[in-house]
Amino acid sequence: MEKTAYICHGCGVEYEPSEHPPDHCRICEDERQYVPVEGQGWTTLQALRRTHKNMIEKVSGNLYALYTVPHFAIGQRAHLLVTAGGNILWDCISNIDESTVDLVGRLGGIKAICISHPHYFSTLAEWSRAFGDVPVYVHASDAEWLGRKTNSVVLWEGEDRTLWDGIRIIRCGGHFPGANILWWPSQRALLTGDTIQVCPDRKTVSFMYSYPNMIPLPKKDILRISQSVEPLPYDAMFGAFGRYILTGARQAMARSVKRYLSIFE
Question: How many Cβ atoms sit within 10 Å of the Cβ of residue 112?
Answer without folding.
Answer: 23
